Batch of 3 targets.
Target 1
Amino acid sequence: MFVKIFDEEHELDLEAKVNDFLKDIDDKKIIDIKYNIACLYDGRGQIYCYSCMIIIKD
């Protein structure tokens, strides 16, 4: 088993990278997909972090 982690500042960038990765993976090998959004304020504005972890059978 192994994981692949993606992290982007924009949700559409994350979506594109995950979809690009998944097109080469047999869907029967995917165990789970986790998705998370984090938001923080840096004094100038809000910063978003969109992340995804894919757990795959080796």
Note: The helical segments are 11-22.
Target 2
Amino acid sequence: MIAFLSVLLVLVLLALLGVLATGVLVFAKGGDLNRRHGNRLMNLRVATQFLAVAILALIALLRGA
């Protein structure tokens, strides 16, 4: 179970990196693109961060740390 959660954590962290990079690029581009997608990307980043922290806490709980 911990191995599965570890792989899932890596995948979520990669998704987080992708969302973060996309958000930075959209913010740097600015204009209409940022107005249309900036808030959605920020919400998606927060959701993926929450998921990563939740998985990390579950791993720590299962390991007894």
Note: The chain is about 95% helix and 0% strand.
Target 3
Amino acid sequence: MKQEIDQINVIPLVDVMLVLLVIVLTTATFISTGQIPVNLAKAKAVSDRKDVPIIITLTSEGGLFVNDKPVADGELPSTLLAESRESAVLVRADKVTLLEKFVALVDEIRGLGFHQVSLEVIRLP
């Protein structure tokens, strides 16, 4: 005696969808704009740059990174030695960074011969 199936079993479909959702949510946490967590300051006007700048990150704890690579204290000049002086430099400073540390960093970068130094901020809505 064969029994006819008059409805669709949706439990396997739901199981597959939940697994896919877990995979998407887990991989989405690894994709971010920057690997170093920095709370950027906010501004009303921001510029859109088309060239690829040298990115220098200053964390709230005082850590320094050049293009996502850690730089020890005093090694910034040797790290930027190979870079062209005409390159744009983009400073990503945490919003709670002391102004004195930020000014000292920008002053050191400009002292190395880089003249296009800018600060990365988040545009206000």
Note: Helices lie at 11-28, 76-79, 99-111.
